[in-house]
Specification:
This protein is mostly helical. Helix content is 71%, strand content 0%. The chain has two domains: 1-43, Orthogonal Bundle (Arc Repressor Mutant, subunit A); 47-188, Tetracycline Repressor, domain 2 (Orthogonal Bundle). Helix 5 runs antiparallel to helix 9, helix 6 (95-111) packs across helix 7 and helix 7 packs across helix 8 (146-166). The termini are far apart. The model has no long low-confidence stretch (mean pLDDT 90).
Amino acid sequence: MSRSERFIQVATELLYESGSLDFTVQELVERSKMSLRSFYQHFASKDELLLAVFEEAIRGFVQTLRSSVAIEPDPIEKLKVYVTTFYGAGESANRRASAALTRYLMVLTADDPSELARVLEPQVTLLAEIVDAGVASGAIRRDVPASALTILVTQTLMSAVETNVLGTQLTGEPVSAGDLWSFCRSAVAAPAAPTAAPPRNRRSPLRARG
């Protein structure tokens, strides 16, 4: 393990133990048994370290998502697994750590959206693959560009996880994974083909004359 990886590992341990990203660089250095000089050789600041911790969390999360999705052959089932697994991540045993990462995501959204887009790119790419496969199979609607559907579903999921983890539901009622999936499926599913009207019964000409 490189020194930078060791710092990231220890920072992650501190996050999950304390449920917070408020640890100091000095605490990190002492826990890692490395020097302050070594820390600043690898990271310009604590902010840079936190970004690396967040990026590593996203990378591991996407690996889990991809493994779960790969089991399903059907694009709609893949999307269901993606949505429910994504939402379920906020229900982890360590909700305080999940809340801390969610707040950090919100900070990145406001302060450095381009960096956030870079970090989330593997996550968005996986969803784009699922949507593209669904469009190709005819299971997902074609009247909205696949790229737009990908972003709309991503924004919906991120907002749902944020309100769930932070407990900021406007109505005070939590959204279930099943409700979220029903909403997303209805939003992206291709419209059902219209059914042909049954033929009208025509009276026999002979019967009509009789």
